[in-house]
Amino acid sequence: MNEAASTLEGWYALHDFRSMNWTAWKAADDEERAVALDELQEFWNEWKNVEQASQGSTVVYTVIGQKADFVMMHLRETLEDLKAVENAFNKTTFAKYTTKAYSYVSVVELSNYLGKEGEDPMQNPEIVARLKPVLPQRQYICFYPMNKKRELNDNWYMLSMDERRSMMRSHGMIGRSYAGKVKQIITGSVGFDDWEWGVTLFADDALQFKKLVYEMRFDEVSARYGEFGSFYVGSLLNEGSLEEMLKL
Ligand code: 76R
Fold first, then answer.
1. Active site located where (predicted)?
2. Global pTM?
């Protein structure tokens, strides 16, 4: 059998995409809307407590276009914790005014392609921090799921470790040239969801997503072996801007 890359896993991830039911939201009276927003605020405070206790992280972004209206990205220690936060949202009054648009379940993943030999990665605080990251509050988010191809002539999983490692080096070099501009979080989803990885990118300039993803298309790992799902792009929401979005 071919040598599998060994992976390190951190927090579990849920990307929970929702659409607004504007008809219901507009039909509600002022008091109902106020109750919904208060509950949402309470819920938001709970997420912040989780983050402060280093037990997870949550960010909320709008989604531009018709695929959804907003996305809550949650990182938590266990799948049960993710289910609990999903349920808690579903039980809020605010959820009554939303519909489910899409979701993605995965786990923060680092692979050993470029790791240093002989080093125990879990002793490296930088690696531990990347496995359990506080999600960045950059202005824009981009999310898409992807696979590595398994076709007769182009089968990533049949390549030798050396071949994959050298291609991943080239991939990493391109990625690194976006340091400071784009922050990426790769989450693995083999066995969890419909694609093999979720790619979540954060940036203050949304054009950097286009430039990075485009540049990677010319790199062999993506050009030859990458298969991509739907792309979602959105901008940062905090309690204030969410209220603004919901104001009638
Ligand atoms: O983790 C590291 O920083 C080491 C180098 C590295 C690995 C191992 C790295 C760097 N990536 C790795 C793994 Mn990546 N990455 C993607 C996409 O749109 C596309 O064409 C592909 C989607 C982007 C935009 C991106 C960005 N990467 C992976 C894996 C797992 C592969 C496997 O195990 O087979 C996938 C699916 C994937 C996909 N990558 C970087 C980036 C960026 C910006 C970096 C540099 C990170 C940095 O140095 O800060």
1. 144
2. 0.97
